[in-house]
Amino acid sequence: MTDAPAVPDAGLGGRLLASYTLGLKLHLAGSKKYGYAVLVALPALFAALWALLAPPEVDGHAFYAEAVLSGFIFKLVLPLIGVLVGVGAIANEKQNQTLPYLLVRPLPKPFLFLSRFASALTISVLLAAVALALPMLVLGMRGGGFFREAPAVLGWSLCAAGLALSAYAAIFVSAGAGVPHPTVFSLLYAFLWEAVLSGIQEEKIQLSRFVIVNAARGFLFENLARTPDFNVPEHPVLGILAVTLLALVPGLLIFSNSGYSK
Question: Domain count of the chain?
């Protein structure tokens, strides 16, 4: 009787990819898909309602940029996507008591945490792409040459959304790993704390530069050559990247603690 052939070790890269893929599958499991569908459909419903009520001569480009993008998607939909996807990346494992089984995988804890962050960010960006594109299709049906500018607007919008969601994913995945009641914390951060930060304009403090939604919208408006009607932080991309890194560090430290799952 011969021994069974040894299964080759996939290596760190293979194990990291497997953890990332499992994270993607968990985000799409169960009833979550229905919540995602409702959330990404909201901007299209908003645009459809406006298209039905607005006079034909009203410019759809300005409405999309200022009301749909800046006002609705970036201030409401993106933070909700971040909370819905990010918090559950690790918190669901804790709630379902599957975290101890997750941590025994042959993958260092920091890489496991980063793989779940990456899977949450991937799902978030895909949802944002749908949320950005659907109202474009709705408004494009009104005519007026809307589709001529659509590719550039969609491209820059997706870049800005990706930046914002990277910071939201870092904050909310870390919150799910180490904060009691992470969903409540995340909602308060997205819709209350950021509003507080945006109002702090003292020259020596300037915490407004770390307001994710304003930084992302400022980056978007700059590249669309539109004048924003809100305070744009200086160096918005650097501000968002700083928030992302600052949020990942505590999550990594908490998750990597030897007694974390106990």
Answer: 1
